[in-house]
């Protein structure tokens, strides 16, 4: 039930700190060690490459998961769209391991890939929010997201839950391999910090609503830009914006702008820059300057330690590997308020279904 909330999406955005704490509880013990089925960990350690297969928001979460998995496990990770992978399967490594990401566990595009893999006898794990769902039953292993029912078509808490559970999985494998970067990573503590930071951002929602009025209430298009994980967040942020507010929004790798996209910038085009990565912050700021000089209306979301006073939204610092869990929150609220202000139904956007059961 949505209780006093006007829309499920807002309720589900608000629930994310609780979901983070639930994941800590379900997947870590009192001293912060991970609790993941040993059989899954062993299978992954025995593999030479991880293939993440998913659609939509789950696919976008997969890219953040890749960064985490590679850092903690030293196993290369590829991320694929189910609808492409099934019909254009890449050359597989000798010992592949497959991770399906699916909130509903019913997505047909993902299922057709799993059916093919099962015929080949290849090992698979599904991360899903729905126990007993098709992708859960048909994969070898399942990890539940514990996000609680997600009703709004626009996925929010499933995205952050997928990233958090992938972080737990990455640490479980990394610890088992005695990788230093993994052993040093106090994930349970970092996730509890994340939960608190999510709360502070959610508390700022009315100022986000005002910024949306200023930047997005009448625009036809908008761009999110970032590098590395900030690019992955830009992809998800723009999917959220387009699917419910119908603003033509695209997420771009900031460095690619000058290779074509910058031609689209006109007087007043909103460009939302995501800056949470120290290595690339200066470069993304350079790209923002380039678009500004061509008329863009820049909106910067930055991490405290990398922020400038003129930035529109500043997020408290969190562990560098987990920044997408917090930088995504304002972008979910941006999509929510843009949709409200334009007068559309937040929970039920046109042409879309919550779970996509046709290929
Ligand atoms: O249930 P799934 O995670 O497999 O769904 C995948 C996509 O259909 C889904 O994430 C879709 O992109 C959402 N509407 C995004 O908000």
From TrEMBL:
GO molecular function: carbohydrate derivative binding; glutamine-fructose-6-phosphate transaminase (isomerizing) activity
GO biological process: carbohydrate metabolic process; fructose 6-phosphate metabolic process; protein N-linked glycosylation; UDP-N-acetylglucosamine metabolic process
Boundaries of every SIS domain copy: 40-179, 211-349
Subcellular location: Cytoplasm
GO CC terms: cytosol
Residues the record marks as active site: 354 (for fru-6p isomerization activity)
EC identifiers of the protein: 2.6.1.16
Principal location listed in the UniProt entry: cytoplasm
Chemical reaction(s) catalysed: D-fructose 6-phosphate + L-glutamine = D-glucosamine 6-phosphate + L-glutamate
Keywords per UniProt: Aminotransferase, Cytoplasm, Glutamine amidotransferase, Repeat, Transferase
Function description: Catalyzes the first step in hexosamine metabolism, converting fructose-6P into glucosamine-6P using glutamine as a nitrogen source.
UniProt subunit comment: Homodimer.
Protein name per UniProt: Glutamine--fructose-6-phosphate aminotransferase [isomerizing]
Organism annotation: Enterococcus caccae ATCC BAA-1240
Portion of the parent chain present: 245 to 603 of 603
């Amino acid at each position: 039930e949505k209780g006093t909330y006007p829309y499920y999406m807002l309720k589900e955005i608000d629930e994310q700190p609780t979901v983070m704490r639930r994941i800590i509880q379900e997947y870590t013990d009192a001293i912060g060690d991970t609790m993941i089925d040993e059989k899954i960990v062993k299978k992954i350690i025995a593999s030479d490459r991880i293939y993440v297969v998913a659609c939509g928001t789950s696919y976008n979460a997969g890219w953040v998961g890749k960064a985490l998995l590679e850092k903690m496990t030293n196993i290369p990770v590829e991320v694929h769209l189910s609808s492409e992978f099934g019909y254009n399967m890449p050359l597989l490594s000798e010992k592949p391991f497959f991770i399906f990401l699916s909130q509903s566990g019913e997505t047909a595009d993902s299922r057709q890939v799993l059916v093919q893999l099962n015929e080949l006898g290849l090992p698979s794990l599904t991360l899903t929010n729905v126990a007993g769902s098709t992708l859960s039953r048909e994969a070898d292993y399942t990890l539940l997201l514990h996000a609680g029912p997600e009703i709004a078509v626009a996925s929010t808490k499933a995205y952050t839950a997928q990233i958090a559970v992938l972080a737990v999985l990455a640490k479980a494998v990394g610890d088992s391999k005695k990788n230093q970067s993994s052993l040093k990573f106090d994930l349970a503590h970092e996730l509890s910090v994340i939960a608190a930071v999510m709360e502070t951002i959610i508390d700022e929602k009315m100022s986000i609503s005002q910024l949306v009025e200023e930047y997005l209430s009448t625009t036809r298009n908008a761009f999110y830009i970032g590098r590395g994980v900030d690019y992955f967040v830009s992809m998800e942020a723009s999917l959220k914006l387009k699917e419910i507010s119908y603003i033509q929004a695209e997420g771009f790798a900031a460095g690619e702008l000058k290779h074509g996209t910058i031609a689209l910038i006109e007087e007043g085009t909103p460009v939302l820059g995501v800056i949470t990565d120290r290595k690339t912050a200066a470069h993304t700021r350079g790209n923002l300057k380039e678009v500004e000089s061509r008329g863009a209306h820049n909106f910067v979301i930055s991490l405290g330690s990398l922020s400038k006073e003129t930035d529109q939204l500043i997020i408290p610092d969190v562990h560098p590997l987990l920044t997408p869990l917090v930088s995504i929150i304002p972008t979910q609220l941006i999509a929510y308020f843009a949709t409200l202000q334009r007068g559309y139904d937040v929970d039920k956007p046109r042409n879309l279904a919550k779970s996509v059961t046709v290929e």
